[in-house]
# Entry
Amino acid sequence: MFSKILIANRGLIQANCVRAVKELGARAITIYAPNDKNSAGVRNADEAYELEVKASGIPYLDIEQIVDLAVKLKVDAVHPGYGFLAQNADFNAKLKEKKICLITPKHLEGYDLADKPQIRSFAQTLGLPILPGTDTCNDLESLKKSAAEIGYPIVMKAAEGYGGIGLRVIDRESVLEANYRNVLSQADRHLLHAPHEVYLEKYFTKAKHIEFPVARDAQGNMVVFPERECTIQRRYQKLVTETPSSCLTDALRGKLKSAVELLMNQLAIQGFVSVEFLYDGDQAYFLEINSYIQPSHAVSALLTGVDMLREQVSIASDAPLSFSSKDITNDDVAMGVFVSAEDTDRNFTPSPGKIERLDLPYGDGVYSLTNVSAGDTVGTFYDPIVALVMAKEISRSKVISKMRTALDALHIDGIKTSIPLMRALMRYPAFSKGEYDSEILATKESRDAIFDNIRTPEESEIAAMIAALSLHRDSSKQHLLDEARENSKKGKVWEMAAEWFNRQK
Amino acid sequence: MKYQVIQGDAKHSVNIEGKYDFAKTSPIEVDKNTYDVKIEETDLSGSMKTVMINHRIYRVSVKKRGDGFPEEVILKGVPYKVDIDRIESTRYRPPASPKNIPGDVSASMPGQVINVLVNEGESVEEGQAILILEAMKMENEILAPKAGKLKSIASKEGTLVMKGDLLFEVE
# Structure
């Protein structure tokens, strides 16, 4: 096992990694940008080091500074978390040079899991269905030609993109060039590989996203976890995760599990990954292998009781998995809702600001993760996810009902969040019945439909009353007189006078 | 005082007594129902935040038009569009709405200008995208508030801007 591990990330994953590393009995060391000094991960780490902020750029992407620190502190391994440097080949190579292990999957020489077109064609040779698409390409004319052959709409992806970065859906040729420039410029800012290349895939508007988390150790033992469904997204980032998915038949699930095992063995992957598929209701197509631990891993951990982060660190050090498929026998359903600091009414525009109050839901079978607390300011430079609320029950309908109560009890005051939309979604019949696809939150109309469904006659009456009361209050100013009278009755006038008197001294 | 509140096809009649006491739980009639209402909490700007209605706490916020009339009520996070149509006997005289729309646009959040789409001196339409501001990994198009000539652009591509910084001006 490793004895000193540097956790090179921030937020929820940083705090969770610190926990896992400490549980393994290793020393948990972490880094932070000045603004993140008070976060849970930094406070709970055994050691924490402030990163120097250079003129432009995100300190968590500063490879040189982080590698230097890892060398200076003589750590055995670096945990990259997700995002930032998790898929960065340069970072990996520089650490390797210094004989420091980056906790990321090892695999067959000559392959790169971040090179999605390469892995896609490898999967195809193993007989897995893939979407019609292209290899990497950086020539506008051939992109245009391929797009026409595949047929619009298509999705354009930066070859090394992740988490929705460098991804565009294109519905006609006239906007292809503008989108291509956009993908490249976004890749320039967020992805460190250069030069950038893109590839195209057919875009299915009616589809569900399925991913199988899977762990394989140095000894070749493998566990494929129940699949997660992450269809509810915005900007191609997950907002709701459920596991297992309600849309797969047992036959298809078995088929996909075998495909995942074949792919893992053939690529000789050692580590924790998730294998993604797109399911159009008929066929499931292989999309990609995600080589970093996903934000949704916590939902699988809740379902199965397996501490995925701990296992990930442990198998990276060549230790065998501490459990087998036989240990995962549970028939429950787990769900996770990511809460983001965004204005869902304005197409998920970020809503930075100060959190005035934070109430997390609690109760049997309900778990919440957050890295913010009352008084914290949500900035604009990082991911806007502020909390993950999870629930577990014996069936999907029961877990949805548990999630409704949980979200009703979740309050984040001071900033706009996705909580109201998520509450409404949990009460939306199409969601409960499983009759939805990845476009469910895509347009204002579709989001309004979700809200319309929960507007009751009683509450519209109350809304009308609040409007009138607000106008009445503003126009009469009567409330000022009423409040002053109450305050003087309660003797507060003397308190106020005393305070004024003290201030004069 | 009687307020007529229109919500889409529905019309509600809200009756708030002239002697309505804001410091106590007091009744308000809406159509044929009576609610016991007390404003429990207000925010820093003095707007209502939590209201106790028939022994139940509601989180509310009211979006107002330029003339101070409510246009949207957000009740427990769910938006309800409202329009107050007619008011009987009120002393309220809303200020006239401003005729001149200001042409200067400043950043509503800190971020980075990643793309400037229009050159200084060019004519722009109302609602035309002038530049793209990136914040929280998201690209936000910043639009012209009115038609006119783009007088100045205060930021270049790559500039980091803070909340309140001037982005551009249309005249």
Observations:
- Residues 132-202 of chain A form a domain with the Dna Ligase; domain 1 fold (CATH 3.30.1490.20).
